[in-house]
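go over this chain:
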Amino acid sequence: MADFPVIQTQQLILRALTSNDAPAVFDIFCRDEVTEHYDCYSYLHESQASEQVRKWMASYSDKGLKGFRWAIALAESPDKLIGTCGIHRVSAHNKSFDIGYELHPDHWGKGIATQAISALLDYCFNQHFPFKVNRITAMTDVVSPRSISVLAKLGFQQEGILRESEYWKDRFNDSRLFSLLRRDWLAAHNETKARVNSSF
């Protein structure tokens, strides 16, 4: 994991997961308010979190061509995980992948998820990824207001509702599909730069 990409913002650090993060991951996924819109039931045992962390750690290979997960931590407490975010369903041919994320409820409503995913997008679109990313997608539960709000703030566009596209919690579930294209991301960044420059 020595070459794992670490991403820093003024407030956050996105770093590699370690086995020591399992208790913090359990503290997130044992909560019904977190798993309400997630494709799993609330965790009952810390061993479930340990296995999930192990899988996330093992997914980092081939410099991300299979996908990988970051631990989200406050810059002032880099060892204390407060959430995770990452990429999966990577297609080098299509220059695309999906993203996913979750955050401990203690940190909801503070703009942290938006800041973390914004940093992830900047990292991937700025050609630090093994290929020039063109399209990033995200799937949410059809009713998932917090996650939908984060994606909207970051410029994702809803493409539609996928009816009964996924089977979890013993039933078929509708999903919302969102996407962000490189050209949209560049346009938004150029607009931000123009506003900053015009303020001087």
